[in-house]
Every structure is written in C-alpha cells, then in structure tokens.
Amino acid sequence: TAKRLEILNEFLPKLRQVVTFYDPGYPASVEGAKLGRAEAQRMNIKLVERQVKSINDLNAGLDALKPGEFDAFLYIADPKVASQAQRVVDVARAKKLPTMFHDQVVVARGGLASYGQSYFEIGRRAAKYVERVLAGTPPAKLRVETIDDVELAFNLITAKLLGVTIPPNVLARAQKVV
To answer: What's the pTM?
Structure first.
C-alpha cells in the first residue's frame, strides 16, 4: 500500500488528497489502511478513508464522488472493493480520477496504474503444487514458496483520457504498458 502511494505521487506530483474505500470488518483492509495512512502522513498527503460495509455502500460512495474532489483513488486490499474493480474504474474514468490498483488485470480493463504481485504467476505456481500432489508427492513434503516479484503496469490510453503524463523515468520501470 505504501509503495502504491509512493508511485502514485511520483507520476502525480500535485497529489495532495487521495480517496480509498475499504470494509472495516476485513482485517487485511484495516491493516492496509493503517499502512496507507502512515505513508500518506509521511508524504504530507491526505488519505480520505471511506469505510464501506456492503456493495451498496461502495456504490453510493462512488456515485457521491465529485469530479476534482480528489487527486486520485488508491486501492487498499479489500475483497469487496476488488469484486467491484470494474465499477471503480468506470466511475473513476467518468469523473477523471486517476487510479492505483494492485492488479494489472484492472489496468488492462481501464485502470490507470497498478503495482502488485502477478496473479497469473501465483496461479501458475499453485498449479505446479497441484501437479506434484496429483503425481503422488505428499503435501507435507512440499516447501512453502513466496512470490517476492511485484509488477508495475500503466494504461496509457487511460492516462491520455485523464490528461495524465507518466514521466519517462517512471514508465521505464513498468513491466506492462497498455
């Protein structure tokens, strides 16, 4: 979360106020908000946290956003918000709000930027585990693996639509550009 906010600030140098939505009943979301809050404070950016307990709350919150009210939307790990990622993208594009997500699939669907682990790579590795178990390897004999690689992605079509210019030094770090 902190790194997403840092990257967002790199390509939106006038970033002062960022909005995020999350369910306060989901522990990972609460932790992500805490990390985002600390980083925002360090960067002298206001993180406006909109807590949502249902999809209806999220939709109402998205509908209530006014163009120009915020400088960007920052995704904080939350399954409720993730399940509505396309709606977030559609509303953000309509209201000219730059977005930073965790998953490059959302960027391919119109989000502006993402920074996070590749779910494709996670699925590929999980399939290898399943393959080994089906071949007879007891699950207890398989070592735990972690994925430390994170990928940065940008959608230049969305950037143009929003009037955002991604600096060349930031764009050069991207693993995927749409």
So the answer is: 0.84
